[in-house]
């Protein structure tokens, strides 16, 4: 379906703007992905937006044509609007911009197939959507199965997290669960839980990793609760040669994740 | 010296606000570091703010007392103001907040002592201040000597970069230079330049690293220019098991930096 929006007060404009807000995303079960590159990544991962919004006065682009065709074929909506209204929706002064609306994915633990990948990333109380998106991106690079978000984390469907994921939000499975549910699910089958930790930890190089390996990092300022660390199968530590006693959470997950990958493949 | 500021239109308020802007920081040669933790990190690294600004109606805190004493002893200014005016300066609604003004450091290549550390991080055209701060933090953890910023990078003295560095802006040396100057400086003495690259690269695990090792990552979207990669002594690649062909720049620097550290110490 094709539509043109000419007025700022159009309800679709209001709806699109509302999806920048977590509360509205949750209620609608939808999220935004912005930019031609990200939308092309989505398409190549088999994810077609339900709604595609772009400016009337845009340069033609074969990737944009492909997106339009895919949305048409899937019965979605293609909306054209003025550059000004599009700027109002995206908050950006770029008439070349394009935005897609996607249905949120199932984020229950039950939807995960743990034997599908040797590595899974797990974050607890991760607050920064940029860190969350970066972890998704790293997970894609590692060949991880997905990212499991424990307790109260940033929203993986926020515009910032989606952007930082560089398309990995469309390739990595995402699950959300409180700790108790997660640990119960984990112990139902094989799986090694490894924490980046300073307590009672062995050096991360050469530690006995085994697949499927769940790599757990904690909150940006508080780290992991002690009882969560105690429940892990393995606690490992990275060298800290300076003043600081911790790495950025997404960096810690990456350094540890690459060590696990090398260990499992050697 | 002690002062109390009671009016929004006080020139010091305007001055402090102006330091959030790159142009004004450059002109003044000063930068801001915000929050008690960051200021304490600075103090422990021997860096005393020239000016300390805090709210009148604050909770007492021994770390804050230590900061005040240090600023007094160094002949700096301690300024008290209302929570409202402090909020205007910091942009935050937190009357516990505290802000320090520091003189920018020398960022010339000539100020670096390359034999002081086995690893140096180098970033080219890095645009995101959060990534820049995260690289400083990673450098501190690696025991790197510092971060060298090539071509047009984000400002290491921006509030965002300083915050993301978690205090490492005070412990890591920082240099800024165009590529031509950097490569001329590098070749004056011993030093191995290693790029994270996809072109003509060897696996990053087990590559022949040697100290002092300069770990180079490129711009967030464009990567490194081909001629820069060609000028490197070693090009290494990390496994990319998914759709993406790159990692976040700060993540790539960390994964590669930790591999270099392990290699040099083995």
Number of domains of chain A: 2
- Major beta sheet, strand line-up of chain A: 8-7-6-11-9-12-10
Question: Which two protein chains have the largest interface (Cβ within 8 Å of the partner's Cβ), and how many residues from each?
Answer: A-B, 36 and 36 residues
Q: What is the number of helical segments of chain A per DSSP (H or I, 4+ residues)?
A: 10
| Distance separating the two termini of chain A | 52 Å
At CATH level 2, the architecture of the largest domain in chain A is: 3-Layer(aba) Sandwich
What is the number of beta strands of chain A? 12
Key terms:
60s Ribosomal Protein L30, Chain: A; elongated; Alpha/beta knot; 266 residues; homodimer; alpha/beta; 2 domains; rRNA_Methyltransferase (chains A, B); SpoU_MeTrfase (chains A, B); 7-stranded parallel β-sheet; 12 strands; transferase (chains A, B); 5-stranded mixed β-sheet
Topology:
The structure is a homodimer of 266-residue chains.
Chain A: E1 2-5, H1 11-18, H2 22-28, E2 30-34, H3 36-44, E3 51-55, H4 62-73, E4 77-81, H5 83-90, E5 98-103, E6 119-124, H6 129-142, E7 146-150, H7 159-164, E8 173-177, H8 179-186, E9 192-196, E10 202-203, E11 213-217, H9 226-230, E12 234-237, H10 249-265
Parallel strand pairs in A: 1-4, 3-4, 6-7, 6-11, 7-8, 9-11, 9-12, 10-12
Antiparallel strand pairs in A: 2-5, 3-5
């Amino acid at each position: 379906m094709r539509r043109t929006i000419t007025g700022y007060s159009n309800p679709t404009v209001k709806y699109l703007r509302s999806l920048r807000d977590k509360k509205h995303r949750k209620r609608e079960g939808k999220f935004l992905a912005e930019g031609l590159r990200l939308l092309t990544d989505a398409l190549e991962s088999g994810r077609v937006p339900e709604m595609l919004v772009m400016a009337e006065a845009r340069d033609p682009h074969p990737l944009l044509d492909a997106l339009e065709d895919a949305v048409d074929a899937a019965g979605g909506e293609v909306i054209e609007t003025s550059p000004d209204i599009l700027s109002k929706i995206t908050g950006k002064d770029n008439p070349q911009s394009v935005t897609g609306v996607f249905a949120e994915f199932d984020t229950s633990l039950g939807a995960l197939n743990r034997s599908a990948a040797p590595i899974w990333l797990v974050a607890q109380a991760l607050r920064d959507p940029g860190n969350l998106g970066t972890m998704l991106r790293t997970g894609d690079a590692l060949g991880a199965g997905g990212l499991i978000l424990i307790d109260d984390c940033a929203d993986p469907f926020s515009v910032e997290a989606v952007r930082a994921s560089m398309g990995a939000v469309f390739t990595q499975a995402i699950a959300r669960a409180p700790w108790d549910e997660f640990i119960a699910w984990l112990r139902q089958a094989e799986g090694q839980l490894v924490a980046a930790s300073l307590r009672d930890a062995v050096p991360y190089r050469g530690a006995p990793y085994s697949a499927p390996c769940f790599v757990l990092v904690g909150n940006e300022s508080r780290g992991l609760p002690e009882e969560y660390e105690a429940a892990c199968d393995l606690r490992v530590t990275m060298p800290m040669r300076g003043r600081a006693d911790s790495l950025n959470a997404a960096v810690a997950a990456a350094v540890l994740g690459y060590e696990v990958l090398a260990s499992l493949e050697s």
